[in-house]
Amino acid sequence: MVRPIVLPLLLASLVLGLGAAPAQARHAGDRREVRTTGACSAGARATLKLEADDRRIETELEVEHARNGTWRVVVVHEGAVAWRGSARARGGRFSVERRLRDLAGVDAVSVRATGPGGVSCRAGATLSGS
Questions:
Q1: Could you tell me the residue ranges of all domains in the chain?
Q2: Residue 44's closest CA among 59, 66, 27, 60?
Q3: Pairing mode, strands 56-64 and 24-28
Q4: pLDDT tens digits for 56-114?
């Protein structure tokens, strides 16, 4: 039997993509910024950037892959779906930018993108509180 605390930790690690590279935090004046590399299949590369600005979190996912086409993207903020939509890759790349509410304390954001032929990328990062 799995202990009650182990299951939520396991789920959180899957959602946040702990297989991805560690996030790098930067502070520029009043702005906080985090960048991390995502975990992708089929040779794709993903980068997630979070930047706090004026009570908002500017969220940007960039994906590079040889295949053009439509990608399905899901942005999760603090365990709830903040945005679900699609993006069109042209020239082997695409980016998605969303502005999220900057909640009190630490903000956890994860992004999942699924593209043509089942190619997928996941990235997650946390942005420290102000």
A1: 6-127
A2: 66
A3: unpaired
A4: 999 999 999 988 999 999 999 999 999 999 999 999 999 999 999 999 999 999 999 99
Task: Provide DSSP, 49-110.
Answer: EEEEETTEEEEEEEEE-S--EEEEEEEEETTEEEEEEEEEEBTTEEEEEEEEE--SS-EEEE
Radius of gyration of the chain (CA): 15
Per-residue tokens: 123: 């990235």
Does residue 78 come out as left (phi exceeding 0), alpha (psi in the -120 to 50 range) or beta? Answer: left
Model confidence, pTM: 0.78
The CATH superfamily assigned to 6-127 is: Immunoglobulins (2.60.40.10)
